[in-house]
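Troubleshooting entry. Yesterday's outputs looked truncated, so today I'm pasting the complete records for two proteins to confirm everything comes through intact. If either block looks cut off, that's the bug. Protein one:
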Amino acid sequence: MAFPENFMTELTERNDIVSVVSEYVQLNRRGGANMFGLCPFHSEKTPSFSVSPDRQIYHCFGCGKGGGVVNFVMEIENISFPEAVEKLAKRAGMAMPEQSEDRESKKRARMYEINKTAARFFYEQLSTPAGAIARDYMDRRQIGPVTAKNFGIGFAPNTWDAMIKALKEKGYSDFEMYDAGLVKRGKNGGFYDAFRNRLMFPVIDVRGNVIGFSGRILDDGEPKYLNSPETLVFNKSRNLFALNLAKKSKSGYIILSEGNIDVVSLHQAGFDSAVASLGTSLTQEQARIISRYTNQVIIAYDNDSAGIKASQRAIGILEKLDLKVKVLRMSGAKDPDEYIKTKGADAFRNLLEGSENQVDYRLRSIKDKYDLSVDEYRVAFLKEATELVASLPGAPERQVYAKRVAELASVNGDVIAEEAERLHKRLVSKAYKGEIKKSARPENLNQPTEKSFRYENPASAVAEEGIIRLLYLEPELFVQALPEPSEFTSPVLAHIYTEVCALLGEHRAVNTSALAPVLSSQEMSLLVSIIQKPEILSDSRRTLADYIDRIRSEKERTGTKPDFAAIMRSKQNTAYEKARK
């Protein structure tokens, strides 16, 4: 969607990037003009996320992500450009301009509508005679009607086309249902309901949109849980079941469970901060989403080998975000749902209050593997436990747990502490050498941080970056003789160059807000890294000419080879030529 330039200018002026980013990231000044904090887009211990109040941009020197205030909101909230603009407009108290929506925005809005209609259909089916099997299941699992309404729980009839017929009556086509993941295509080319004979749980995002579904089978069929496929609005690795409810909790922590039923039971029992991943193990994206709402997570996975393994993996992901992680140890029940039903909500509350921190949990898990009365096993325990202590980032933390390990194995604490420090130094040195070796490889020199982009000719790409940087910093250079986009060796730089020239050709300001609708998040990150690099502007015309000469000399040296599809080159040249007229 295209917005008026004056509207976008006012929008960015009234949404200072430091103020907006500070709502998600704790920023501090290091003495210079920029603010720094821990990057919300990747795991790190040392702040490498920079925000420039002067340029109104952000850039992470670790993962390479960057952009302006609109891009930041798009990335952090996982929303489209129009949605990010609308969110910022609401934040600033600005009215949205009347605009015709672009094709993707219309499709996204339509998909929200069809999902909401489908959710209403499933909910209504729960009270029909056919829904008796689902109501019986809910009675057995002690899910009350109020809870069912709060979660929008419904029933998918055991038919091939009940939902299709209902949605067609509402004006939706087979192909719209297919794009939303609500139907599947048959061998004969027709369509049939994707969810049948299942208890249906709508997946609702933090803005209240129904983005997908998770269906629990009501007989002995497989799979036990069926989730919506990836769609324009649904990505299961970037969403959490019931986060739309848990974000309102006053508890101060998030309870991370394995399944939908566990979450529903926890909320019904008064533990309103429970969430679950959607059919997969916890992902880094989900962990980062959780970190926006709390700094403490309590893992309440199933009390079996798979649950223990999943807990260990989740701990490793969560601790990288500096979250305080605790783990429940449930005895006498396999999961939170069973524990609450057999022992009650008060007992579970006591369990929460007595939950172990993640280091204690991992240490106990190691101890449970060995019989410490046998010297051979005790040595094995000490080796594994000391390696765990060595991996801890803080020296005081290593000292405390080295003593704990020594006590468990009845050995001298100083010996364990010394060994842990020796191993810790080795780990740090190995990691540092690995990064140095990796960055020094010829193929990695002058390459963008974003791994999806690689320069086939780094020497030419440096000059191509330079031209983009000069035009961004000194737009008046646009009147000079410039190279064609097809002369660029890097397709991504050719695209960025074309879009910059298009803005200049329309006499518009070149900034991140103007480029946000036409550049992907990866392209925007690359652009920000380019304009962050130093450039001598005292004789910018001469510098521009030098960059152009370098591109053309590299082309002569390597020979003329098309680096990307002719259709793309034609599209870029057409846009470039239009801008230059």
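Protein two, checking that the full record survives here as well:
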Amino acid sequence: MKKFPLNPVCLYEDFYQFLREIRQKYTDKPALTYFTRRGEERSFSYNQLTEQALALRESLFLRKLNGRHIAIVGENSYEWILAYLAIAASGGVAVCIDAEQPDKTIREMVLAADAQAVFASGTYLPICRPLLQNNRITGLFRLEEKEGEEDCLADLCRQGREAGTNTTGPSLSPQSTAVIVYTSGTTSTSKPVMLSHQALLHNAGNSLSYLKGQERVFTSLPFYHTYGMTSAVLATFGRGAHMLINGDLKTVMRDLHLAQPDSMCTVPLMVEAIHKGIWMNAEKSGKADDLRALLKRDKLMRKLGKNSIHPALEAVRKQAVGTLTMITCGGAHLSPDITEEFQSMGLTILQGYGITECSPLVAVNSDYCNNPESVGFVIPEMEVKIVEDEIWVRGISVMNGYYKQEELTREAMEDGWFKTGDLGYLDKNDYLYITGRKKDLIVFKNGKKISPEKVEEQLRTIPLIKEVMVYGAASGTTADDVTLAATIYPNPELSAGLSSYEVLEQLQKAVDQINADLPPYQQIQLVNIREKEFEKTASQKIKRYLV
């Protein structure tokens, strides 16, 4: 393994300890900022954040909801984070509900996790209200404050504050379940994952062992997903940095520029969208050739060991993402070519790899030695081994199991190892590589195998493609008699004014160019066009089983 210094990290054993210690350490430092629809800034210090979370915790004791399963349903918000922290710190289990699911599924998720109460935003209150019938839940609380309405989170905080935040409650076991999170469900229905206090908090701390944490961290990742909550929010709070959040993807770029962050946690889809936006602007302004020349020159200079950023490339970056200089990216593979171009502009992208059942982070690149082809090094307190090309993980951050699904738990675990279903390998320098999903693997009659993700990565370089899914289309009577096909959602900005035939013709020409450099079995034989975006998971991965 390559040698580089590990950063000192803060490790916490339970959420009550976490709240008390970050309050003592960071006091008046800014903890969290968000922007209203009008772009107005709302900020909270560590004192304010922890005081309100502990007051809400006290209120849960007063209502005898401490130690209970309590669901949270809503968009990203300051109040969402308060509910999560207070529930876990009271000895309860925060049930994180995927707010993008259909109404019926949201209610089913609440009930499947045995939640006795729900915190919901105004948007989701009508969806959750039927759960009060027949006492399926005993409490429903509004996350945001609204004049004239009681039983909102702010009221509970006031009640807890008036009672005094002195209830210590039973000591919390680091191994006890603090959170139930539903898996993303790219290849099947979602599963309820039980994660312990120690699993989440150690994962958040260890995520920073290989990379220097920045002072201002921006994210729009959903908090009901472990990547957004653990790797962004908890990791930032644990070291006393400033978290800047977005709760509405319609305003994400506006908020990114208003926030003026140093770093951002996001997914490849967001990075690819920014990258495509840069090139579209360059084409429209007639500067695309100049940009290509600058990037080519910078690549040559880097090979000669000269790493200074050209002012014109730095200007491109600032126009696109403002003050941002570092992105940690996970959830899917990102093209190394995109990473290299952003590096030339002064924006470092560090890829990582995680999975919900591991709290989620398993590996991440280091700013000391970044390998864009890889997802980095396995983090401390975690182990990886490769079994028949599948990645198995063992360590402190692995789940306690699937809630009330013992058979699924037994299938997923073996002697303490979690079988991820992801395919990959470790090289001689201990870099971890992901090659695809075991369930997505396409097998041909001649025995050849291919991961569709690799082909999709190449197809996404075509400007006219916004989203794409590659699959094996049946072409015979047996399961392995397939041809490689691609279903494409065209970029609406570039396809505007074109007929379906013209779009398909342009796509076919671009696909043929890519096919020319691929062996026959990896070539796309069939191209389909879809009229709307694919349904995606919280981490913006296509739900393949629905297509």
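Both blocks look complete. Sanity check on protein two: The first strand starts at residue 30 and ends at 35.
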